[in-house]
Design brief:
The protein contains 2 helices and 4 strands. By secondary structure, the protein is an alpha+beta fold. A two-stranded antiparallel sheet has the order 1-2.
Amino acid sequence: MATRRIVWVAGAALGCTLAIGCAHQEPAPAAMPAPTALTVTAQQGQSQSKQNADKAQCQSQASQFARSSQEWAQMFAQCMSSRGYLVQ
């Protein structure tokens, strides 16, 4: 009796036997949209050193969790907005 293993490819379950072998191929990554250029303006008189620190922290946070450049831009903008910056 052959043992069966289920392999998920592009959301569909495909059965294959171990006797034959299974070649698992990762789906091709989706094309990433071009990065968005963002302009950040201090709205609460933040010093340049405070702006640099906030920007570095928000960049780090967005880089940890974003899965696309668009998601990164949204996370970065939200983080900076919450710290008193206008992001366009």
